[in-house]
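Quick one - first record:
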Amino acid sequence: MATFSFLDKLSSAIIEQYQDTISNIVIVLPNKRARIFLIEALKKQLPGTLFAPEIVSIEDFIQDVAGIRTCDNIELLFEFYDVYLEVTPPEKQQSFELFANWAKTLIQDFNEIDRYLLKPSHIFSYLKDIEDIKHWSLDLEKRTTMIDNYLEFWKLLPLYYESLYDHLLRKGIGYQGLIYREAVENLNHFSEALGSKKLIFAGFNALNQAEEKIIQQLLFNDQAKVYWDIDAAFLNDSFHDAGLFVRRFKKEWKQYTTQPFEWIVNDFSEEKNIRIIGTPKTVGQAKIAGKLIEEIQLETESLDKVALVLGEENLLIPVLYALPSSVESLNITMGYNSKNNPAQILINKLFKLHTNAVQRNEKSYVFYYKEVLDILTHPLVEPYVKAGSLVQVINRNNITFLTHKKLFEIQEKPSALFQLLFEKWDNNNVGQVLDRLSQIILTIKSFLNNDKEEDKLSKTFLYSIFKVINKLINYHEAHPKLDTVSTLYTVYKQVIDLAEVSFEGEPLTGLQIMGVLESRVLDFETVIVTSMNEGKFPAGKTMNSFIPYDVKRELGLPTYKEKDAIYSYHFYHLLLRAKNIYLLYNTESEGLDAGERSRFITQLEIEKQPAHNLSHQIYNAFLPDKAYEPVAVPKSDRVMVRLKEIATGKGFSPSGLTTYMRNPIQFYNQRILRISEVEEVEENIALNTLGTIIHATLEELYKPYVGKFLSFTDMDWLFAMADSEVEKQFRLVYKEGEISKGKNLLAFEVAKRNVYNFLKEEKRQLEAGDVVKIIALETPLERTLEDSRLPFSVKIAGNVDRIEQRNGKIRIVDYKTGKVLKNNVQLKDWTGLTEDIKNDKIIQLLCYAFMYEEKTAGLEMEVGIVSFKNMRGGFMPFGRKVEKDYETIVTPDILADFRTQIVILINEILNPEIPFEEKIK
């Protein structure tokens, strides 16, 4: 804490005035957090051991005055729904999901009305009249049911308010506004019961009407004293929002006509080093905050007087990861939104998995693979569920949907956690489902270690959701209407918004990480504030209320103007006694998490105090001269051994050679390192899978005719068998993938159409007089390339789709499912053949011709492509330009020229001086 902090000053005043009766005073502070720091401040200044004074937050104090217990937001929403069902006719009752959408906003309005002691009947009739005026022009005959229901809602507001108010009073519980209203009603009784005790209100800024009335009455009765914490710079400037409320209290409270107004300080004008730092995006701020803390720690060693104030709670996790490892102790005092809580995300995924499984087929209980994998790969589940083999099976077999029975067949020995996660949910047994969720959380907790910091964080996340599940268990026992899993899920989605994660730590030592509201009353020497952007700090004009802005202004309810003033006070109070201040903001003005620089920064610049040292910095991520440096892998001795192993063993395939041309690094990864692609479920059939299916179909259809001449009768049989063979191959290749609907059904039909078009073209050519004999299908070929220009003999090997004898010539056919044009297989000049990837089809075809050359038995040979996306092109043969025409027969001269080019390419691959260099498109 700072040397002369507000709490130090308050401690001195208390000891000076009440040292003998210190246990007889009650100190009321804006929040609970400040209590620990005040006790510490008192301890340092007290000469001996005494009973500490009672120190309470304003909310606890008001509860004591009213004699009513506060209920949390989740409980309140449930109580309100009970009241709603009691007072609303059954035919007009809404489900909890619809009710909660407007009930949360309505409770906020009830809260404001009561906190400011307004007359509810006046406000609700005012609102009803406004809505009636909006629809005054509509004749009664023209009013729709929707409009009537809408106007009826406004008429029912007084009934909802009174019924809820009375219901909560009977139970001895209430929301904040109700407690405040009852506290005012009960103030005289409380004042009499107070006896000789003295109340001290310290560090307040904005007060609602109820708080004002209570404090003023106690001041009038000489039972209380108030210590403000306001700087003269804010108080004396009539336009400064930081002093908006305190200025009014000083001017309007009658007590201050005869009593001194304490305390007005002059700390803001003291010397301060203020660094304003802009950086793109939220994560950039987290990184800079971590770096600043590292620098501060090097200078001062201790972080006890350092506060990191987060303008938005989403920054908490990035900040924790950005903190240097040298930070040994820290205290987090802020709520963390449950929507980002990993435990909540897991429970939400479980609800989706099981509710969808029931909807698909309640008997078979069908899971969708993505929902299963989402749970199995969740960070709280994956390390403990022991289901790695199940994930592999799902990915390898393209299982898109699987039944509950199938899931447990694949996972032969399921762990206890696995069973809890995937056992069927009984749609009509909500209690059992809630117990299951509770057991899942406890089981995961049992795997976590108290000694690991990360596990402690995980336990905090689990505990916050465990409390919500327990509340749902209690609510289910009290409210039988929560009778199906789908209803439970809607209730869960509503209540989870109201559940925050609370962190615990050592409040007096180490770095303090807090939200804006948690910083009230506290002072630090060094303050780092993040998210200094409009819409974040201050929060902006978001007003979630049924009461219009102009009505709020007229009735004295707080609007965004007052909320901005509250933010202004908190911000300037943070700076008040700090010596080193770092203000971080997002420089991006558009996109997510973006906004203009906060007005508070501009205000600091315009109203700069003489002793303030302001500096501006913009931090950008380092941008190298090149966005990406291509990878280059030198050919080590081991790589050369592997290359020789390939060249003399399995051999270089035509596709392998073209892979090298396309990108040497891809060749290195696939052929040298033998890295295969990660197995993932093909939910939609990929092009290469479709190609495999068509190739396999044609192979199986034509297999009975190998070594035979094709006839018209054969073609009729091929047409008859085509569709069933396509389906068979789909089942073999795509395994358990879904092909009966969606994109996969379209792909299935495309495959059938491609095969049909191929057979149709085959039949047309037979009718035109072609004589076709099938020699081989999907056959492996290989040939050793012996050349003095090579360091050693090299094998060329690969699979050919089809070899046939057509009209007395050998024809080698390569099927392509992609689109190939005639000019893709025509060669004008041998120069640079292996340097341009556009020649990849020519190289593949000539490799096939080279491998089969010795088996032609003196027959002429042609090689070419059949493109299923260009069936009009028919068989497109390789052609070498001779004068104005293209020669399609592969002659020994052509193969000799090709050998020269392929030797150049292979020599490059085998050259130890030429590294594998990545090619970037």
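second record:
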Amino acid sequence: MLKRGKAGAPGDCVLDVRLWGKENGLPSPYPVVCHLLDTSALFQELWDVILSDETRSAVAGALGLSAEQARSVVSFWAGLHDIGKITPPFQAQAPGAYEPVRDDPAYVNAPGAEGEKGFRHEIASHWSLYSLFSQAGYPDDGRLMHRSVSHQIAQLLGGHHGLFGSVLKAKQAARASDYNPGLGRSGWAEQRQVHFDELRRATGASAVPAGGLPAGLAVVVAGLVVVADWLASQASVIAPRIPGPGWSGTPGEIDAHWRGALEAASEVVEAARLGRAEFSVGDFGAMFPFTPNSLQRDLVEHLPTMIEGHGPGLVLVTAPTGDGKSEAALFAASLLGRAADARGLYFALPTMATADAMLPRVEAYAAKALSGERALRLLHSMAWLSSPGGDDCAGVSGDQTVGVLSAGHETAVEADSWLRGAKRGLLAPLGVGTIDQALGAVLPLRYNVLRLLGLSDKVFVVDEAHAYGPWMHQLLVRLLEWLGEMRAPVVLLSATLTGRTAGSLVDAYRRGAGIREPSGVVPRYPGWLFASGASEVVSPARGTKTDRVRTLRVSHRPVMWDALESAGAPVLKGGRRAALREVLAPVAAEGGTALVCCTTVAEAQQTYRDVCAAFPELAASPGGVWLLHSRYPADERARITAECEAAYGKPGEKPVSVRSASVLVATQVVEQSLDFDFDLVVSDLAPIAQLLQRAGRGRRHRRGRLGRPVWAAAEDEPALVVLDPLTVETPRPPRSWGAVYDAGLLMRTSRILQERSPGGVAVPDDVQRLVDEVYEEEFVDRLEGAAREELVRLDEERLAGEAAERHLAAWTSICSPADVKGDLSKLSVREAGVTQDLLTTRLGADSGRVLCLYQQPDGRTTLDSHGAVVAPGGGRWGLRSAELADVARRVAPVPGRWLRGGEPDTAVPRGWGTHPSLRDLVLLDMVPAGVGCWVCSYGGYTISISDVGLEAQ
């Protein structure tokens, strides 16, 4: 098949269609040239459908080409991604297809070349494409490879399996086959050249770029290459396009295949739902079935003019809980999206529960405000439970009847994951999910470019921007730099954001957009500000009115800390238990609702028992006392949350009355995005921002005089009782709190409460001042003697800890776009141990996951204590979808220290498969231990589960 002239010049070669690109599960091998053509055609369709006019123009401008030339050239590059398959190690993976090539004397291999399995085809693409581009006349710097356009494109295409290779050394690149026997010798290089030339001819990519791509555009192109490759690798795309007998890859046949690939591409992309949503509505009234409040009205009146005059950019909204920030964000997203020609939006939230709650609101908004492709995805680690059409098996080793067909099993798994799972999620035009799904874009994880691509042309909305610690904040800063580089509009929302934090977020976005001057922003509360991504304009923060001015009546109660005393222990005067009995007595006697917010799960469980013991009639009544925390099995926590939403949620259309006496004992899970309304809020001491968040659950909705008990009739004067363990006798937080909160912030908050309690807190006027005040350096000057010295020491510890976490963020994250400097491997280089789990566990939250298996008296093992659901046995292909869902819904988080030491035979059975939700899951064999209680021994702990959730001793 391979013909050579006397001189052996590459121009004398004939394309060899025996070289295969796809083979596994197909009736006959699919020539690699066909896959290259299919991928180029799909990339061209994605270029037309996904990218905005502005992005296409930016790519063309960077390359120094016309728009049409850039389209042809970049789609040509996309097809070249798999040219590294024209190598002995790859071709040898299909012995039957390889045999005639191996026996052809035109192909010469170095000894052992076929066994170079570590020399993967994407690595071969990187090495071989550098010289191919250089020989084609692409700009090349033979001395500084990272400045070479030829090398940048080769490195970009070599990253199509999600990781970019290191910059090649000039000396080695010049003699690539000497350093890499897997490239093959005579014959192999000529075939790579002829495939390169034929693809270039067919795609019309004769133009030569004058320059390379900046970092933001490089990741967009790299991400599109991955998508085009995955789409082109589907069985439904390959099967009808397998050439018939006698097909020899002549120029005419190549052109015919190219035309067919172009004709099929639009249907493939449309079926994948990878189109563009259009922000077609700009009127608030057309988006939402209510008139705008003061905050929303101010955005309606002023934001359009700012965007029209200065282009899209970033909007920061700061307002109290319940002031309509979500609708304000969606309205701002519509204006920004229209101005930027964005293809959709992603709404990022701090938790899975808040993401689940936001999904229907975004869906309703999209139905009214958007047109075009409105595919909406819920994105978090457990979203698959509610996704239709999921895999029937939990294992990844089963028979893959849809998705990618390739000799490499890894490719099949990855492509199927894109079609159905997390890797594809951010590519959908619309998304709602947890913030970690977006922050993964700036971790050096495989396929992080897909996340960057998914966010590059969307409006990015971040709710609860204040809710992240220093290292998560630093990752958000890095992500905003990338979004600024890619000119993606951003909306940030917060109820309690310090001025320093606000400035760091705004400045990061501007820095990415090339604006180095600090913004000097000073947020207003409530209010909003706008920072242009196209100019240096930053609007002064606009203060807005609130439709509900309130005075928070704070009762500051210094107490002795006896939260973990048993319910039957004597109640000490001046203790926390005595204070709780006092403040909850009106609830039990006269009706109404109260929230008691605790610092730890263990204290919440014991407080629940104590409240039940103190008020037995209340505990005996339906819904009298509830307990809500994170240490329940997922289905039980979901049930309790739903019942609490019914009990404490927004009143409906029916006439309201005083609610029956009810107390919810909870942890911090109630702080964010749960629309609860209590007549009284009681909280253990916490930093001022958290206390204000909790106070926002007090008398949140208008219930009127008939809807509140007499003791809570003043709806605009909600009550917050703070139980403060910091006393003269015990100036440090309880040891049981561990490192939940910074001790210095607690000391500062305690002092502020002492000073503020008599006059109350004006909401919203005092909120921003209090949030900033607790961090002021001059705060220590209010104290004297030992107290001052102690706070100075605690502040030093806090600042050192924050610096360490920022260092961790720098250690885990990719570099800023300005620091890429032509070397895409900086997006893939990572220290050992950096995984997605670092994000979801917030780098060191000491956590584990358990599944309780109940050993019934009749010998059965069940997933529930009642014995109704038998534990599945699994099988060759893992658990089926219904079985996997039964297991996943019953998983519970626990502290990691409970699981140290371990026990034999507690891992997931092999027959259950390898679904990500089963990773690191520990099985606990529970036996009965009294009414409603089950126990097991694990390591050095006795772990129990009962109506208060999981506990350990």
